[in-house]
Design brief:
Blueprint: H1 2-13, H2 19-22, H3 28-40, H4 56-66
Helix pairs in contact: 3-4
């Protein structure tokens, strides 16, 4: 459930990162679009942290849907 994962991420990482400004959340297509927009602005390095801390299903989804959509 996204809402539960987002709440956990805010609790655990919110003191370190402003997740409202820096996190990419959404469908794989939306996340790829946001990453590609940052790349178009010249960003060349990303640190990826998943809100569920690398659940296998999330890693597979990123690898299968997001990564191939990056230009």
């Amino acid at each position: 459930d996204f809402k539960a994962k987002w709440a956990m991420a805010k609790q655990l990482l919110g003191a370190i990162f402003d997740l409202e400004k820096t996190a990419f959340a959404g469908t794989p297509e939306q996340v790829a679009e946001k990453l590609n927009a940052r790349r178009a602005q010249g960003v060349t390095f990303f640190t990826v942290l998943f809100s569920d801390f690398n659940d296998g299903e999330t890693l597979e989804l990123f690898a299968e849907k997001v990564r191939p959509a990056l230009e």
